[in-house]
């Protein structure tokens, strides 16, 4: 059901118009001034604003400009009894969706409203759930919760162990939200040195960073527990500025660390935690939802097969699936995907059998590491050699590797290497 905010300083007209709109099935909020409309929007987002042009105090066009700067993409239709062509031209040029002249023609009004709503209505809203495969009752309950959280436009904190699906849950939340046709901006707070992260989030001038770019959209702060003390303070300040009423930027953050413990140990600010954790989703580890394992294993194999046309394996034997379902999976769904890829790449028959699974789970694929494991090992050794050679000078090491500093820091983070440990002590 679409929600319309109707703004007019003529109270009797306000009553009449809202009756008309309600009779068409719209939910209608009213305000008798532009200032009142802005207050109303801060409390309750609307799908469309229908406003009079000439009003005492702020007029309809000034209201439109304020709406555009705070609720980008929210369509505004302006009505006026004093309709002049220059007014209409000015209104539509500045981005007002449409300009209607009073007395308003009922059919034209409804057609214009429906046209505006059809352009902004979230697409594929019902598909949001398809990203997350599950048949586990706890996860199904979480999906119901996620669907209602998605519609609330509040900050969400997603917790759960590494590889448990915090990233896909974020995509699903964004997809189910009214911002689904806007971008989902994402940044990993643990993968960048603090100054690069500061620059990316807030920009050099405080105007050009991700926070600014994500206005009207969603910003995913992955691994929020990795924020330095000073960035935690800065983020809190920004959220306080943005967070009055309906937030311009919807922040979804995630952490595999126990942030409550981090808070108790003084490593994470309490005030920031409560601001990010307005709604919470905590994903269970894969071992607590073993009924999902066959489903996810088949999905991982299908994905592998669609990327590698020469894959011989078509499926798993029941015994192989039982072994997968009984395993511990400390790396959760990501680890399961990686084991299935390894099995699919080694398998020469249509069915992946129990013996292969057993061998992969014990890490014993003939003593030969997988390509990914071998590459990770090589990368780590290589980075350590570079840092030893340059005595921890990251700029020099990045130059020698032919990478920029940001990429180089990402590599170091991925392998848990601290450049400072290679600096000479004297
Ligand atoms: N329920 C699920 N259904 C389908 N795929 C899933 C599901 N959960 C996770 N995955 C897949 O598992 C992999 C890891 O998931 P994801 O990156 O979302 O985990 P994460 O918790 O964000 O990990 P990390 O803490 O390491 O960032 C991805 O390839 C993702 O697509």
UniProtKB/TrEMBL annotation:
Domain Response regulatory intervals: 3-117
Keywords: ATP-binding, Nucleotide-binding, Phosphoprotein
Keyword ATP-binding annotated: yes
Domain Sigma-54 factor interaction: start-end pairs: 132-345
PROSITE patterns documented for this protein: RESPONSE_REGULATORY, SIGMA54_INTERACT_4
InterPro entries assigned to the protein according to its UniProt record, in alphabetical order: AAA+_ATPase (IPR003593), AAA_lid_NorR (IPR058031), CheY-like_superfamily (IPR011006), Homeodomain-like_sf (IPR009057), P-loop_NTPase (IPR027417), Sig_transdc_resp-reg_receiver (IPR001789), Sigma_54_int (IPR002078)
4-aspartylphosphate found at: 52
Pfam families noted in UniProt: AAA_lid_14, Response_reg, Sigma54_activat
Protein name as annotated: Sigma 54-interacting transcriptional regulator
